[in-house]
Amino acid sequence: MMSRLAGKVCIVTGATRGIGKGIALQLAEKGAKVYITGRTLDPVKGSKFGGSLKDTAREIEARGGTCIPIQCDHSEDAEIERLFDIVKRENDNRLDVLVNNAYSAANTIFNSMGVKFWDLPPSMWDEVNNVGLRNHYVCSVYAAKIMVQQKSGLIVNISSGGGLKYVFNCAYGIGKEACDRMAADCGFELRKFNVAFISLWPGFVGTETVLTNLSEALEKEPDDKRASTALENFSEGETPEFVGQCVSGLAVDPDIMKMSGKIVFTCDLARKYGLHDIEGHVPSDFTQFKFLLNMSGYKRLAAFVPGFLRFPKWILCIVGNKFY
């Protein structure tokens, strides 16, 4: 199934490291021509987290893939427009997949955890949601212009469970729920043109930024149980390339329109496509009773609960219900 990625043209935003890099690596490894974007073109000496477009491109090319790095600040509309002009010009006005992953607020969120929204400057909204939300919409507009004409295509927003319940801070959750709603509403308008729009929820993904920040937090506060549990979950959770496997599967799924406008879990795609992460890493299944018991601190009890026991997703709707 994955061989059908050969010849497909993809854009992955925010691919210098983390989830974006993992997605780009998998798409390119499976035959796609991948345009990657980010602010950092060349490696930066002494960078705490590392990663650059050229680093990602070199790794892709070492695997035999095709990668075109384009430096782009996704807070600047003119640079986004330039990106899509390049892709159109170089591919005869074709684009098969857009992955909206660019996010510039990871460090900001870690540094402001526990601070109430009224004690943060109003600029927190822009720091979190300019690139992490508005940019997704802008990129989707340009992608849709191409995909509607060709009557095919896939747009993926990388979102999270923060769109369901409070996580990290207010601006983060608002942005993630908006990403989910973007997929629903834009997907509604794109449906008759055979263009799919999906909001993808990975589980705990052990990116460089997350693992480094959590490790540093534990160095400062060794008794911080919350940070300790989080580090364990992210260390044993999904790898960025597992998310890439999921996006690669979506890109060639003949029934993709059945998922359009919906929130899709990586753990569900793992079962659907028969995907496996590297040893020691397991997708987080939010609907598993075992997972919920583990997260609630009942690890001994969780050990006796079969992994196939899950609750229906409509219960998640109740958990996130905003109506009185």
Core attributes:
324 residues, alpha/beta
Order of SSEs: EHEHEHEHHEHEHHHEHHHH
Number of helical segments with 4 or more residues: 13
Distance between the termini: 46 Å
Task: Tell me the number of strands.
Answer: 7
Percent helix, as a range, is: 40-55%
Strand order of the largest sheet: 3-2-1-4-5-6-7
Q: Which of globular, elongated, flat, extended, rod-shaped describes the shape?
A: globular
How much strand? 5-15%
Averaged pLDDT: 90
Report Rg: 19 Å
Largest sheet: 7 strands, parallel
Ranges with pLDDT <50 over ≥5 residues? none
Task: Kindly name the structural category.
Answer: alpha/beta
Explain the overall architecture.
The chain has 324 residues and is of the alpha/beta class. It is built from 13 helices and seven strands. A seven-stranded parallel β-sheet has the order 3-2-1-4-5-6-7, with helices on both faces. The radius of gyration is 19 Å and the shape is globular. 44% of the residues are buried. The mean pLDDT is 90.
Please outline what is shown here.
48% of the residues lie in helices and 11% in strands. It has 324 residues and is an alpha/beta fold.
